[in-house]
Amino acid sequence: MRLSTSTLYVTATTAGLALVLTACGGGSGAKSTAAGTWDKNVTVNIGSLYEPQNLDNTAGGGQGVTEALNGNVYEGLFRLTDDGKVDKLLAQDYQASADGLTYTFTLRSGVKFHSGKELTSADVKYSLEKVLADDSQSARKSNLEVVKDIATPDAHTVKVTLSQKSISFVYNLSYVWIINSEAKELKTSEDGTGPYTLAKWTRGSALSLDRFAGYWGDAAANKQVVFHYYKDATALNNALLTNAVDVVTSEQSPDALAQFKSNQSYKVNDGNSTTKLLLAFNDKAKPFTDVKVRQAVSAAIDDQKLLESVWGGYGKLIGSMVPPTDPWYEDLTKVNAYDVAKAKKLLAEAGYAKGFSFTLDTPNYDPHPTAATFIKSQLAEVGITVKINTITPDEWYTKVYKNHDFTATLQEHVNDRDLVWYGNPDFYWGYDNKQVTQWVAQAEEATTTAQQTELLKKVNRQTAEDAASDWLYLYPQIVVANSKLSGYPLNGLNSQFYAYDIKKQG
């Protein structure tokens, strides 16, 4: 499971046989670029460990549905680019009122859903309301709860009134898929406006997308993309070596990289990730109600050694929830840095000179079991006994996320700009600092991005000093591809993987 801020949960699935790779070459479909000749009618085969749970990103579809469908099948009013910028997409233009409470969006003309229906303001209203519904599991539901009213003055205009200022409103809209208001069975089918339509989803094996002939923008550079799903990194790498897939969205086995680095047929790309591995404490459960205990545990774990053991020379230490790609990043790795003597001192001051014991709820897929075993060994050196309780992603979602029935857990958080969750005392980890909550609220109501950044830097430092969680490391984003491929995304922002610019040389 990689938690996409709110309720994203996913399991790696078993893989079936890969579809036959479409040949790339000349002919009527061939085009020339500076990089060489590429075939606009080629099929691009993509290898992944993250199959969707279902195809609805408001119904727990998981990381896999974002990876395959976001930007490819579904589009938003705005698009989050691979380098973290927000561009207009289905919104032709927009205006914000002077008080920051009313946004008026003008929709692009000539946009059609895959069913053939024309995009209207009613579809935008429906899509926003779907995110805000009581049963929604959207990653940005709580951020968008500032929406007070949605009006549709005409077919191409949407007017949204907020209950309070939200400087992140447009950014958060990049997470909202615009869906045909008349669409049904969205867990197994789709009706988006993107450059691809869903061709076929064979559960446990593959999901294929075909180029949409009626797309309003530039046509996809390839005719078809097929996401192939594998149960482990070894199977995924073997698929790449045998040309069953052309690219791996996120390499999870650094030990296997040497075989690709030494082979000119492949290119290894080390991009920027936003995925953090957390040792998340339940800050409302003893002994983690005590800041000194949290600080001690953080100081007792050698994050660098863990990172090396899991990822070799890849990945980064961050010391907080904020990755370097966020505007309010600050290097806080020296706060609660590895220091066994300090950890023992803090435990004694907290009344646990002889240590204590706790249960660590651990998702059952890599790297969590490895990290849990490492943490258990490290904490034993300061007298803390760890019992590892291995659970499935579904069990984690119910036990930890929904019911808050845990003392500490391991989890990945995928999204960028998710520091703000420490301003919500009701979030699953229960961190409750009134000053932090106030700063987060003030940052969201800021007039300028400079004001927002200044306030969130304060939040970043305070949560680090409070050891609200132990941010073990930032994942690397390693994309390995056939050297004939170009145009694939390099960074792992929120697990999206735009496929429409991918070209394959002949």
Please characterize this protein's 3D structure.
This protein has a 7-stranded mixed sheet with strand order 11-12-13-4-14-21-15, covered by helices on one side. It contains 12 helices and 23 strands. The protein is globular, with a radius of gyration of 23 Å. The protein has 506 residues and is of the alpha+beta class. Residues 5-35 have low confidence and may be disordered. The two termini are 37 Å apart.
Mean of all residue-level pLDDT scores: 90
Q: Distance between the terminal alpha carbons, to the nearest Å? A: 37 Å
Across the major sheet, the strand order is: 11-12-13-4-14-21-15
Q: Indicate the radius of gyration in whole angstroms.
A: 23 Å
The count of strands amounts to 23
Shape: globular
Q: Structural class from helices and strands?
A: alpha+beta
Number of helices: 12
Strand content: 15-25%
Describe the largest sheet.
Answer: 7 strands, mixed
Fraction in helix: 10-25%
Unreliable sequence segments: 5-35
What labels would you give this structure?
single chain; 506 residues; alpha+beta; seven-stranded mixed beta sheet; six-stranded mixed beta sheet
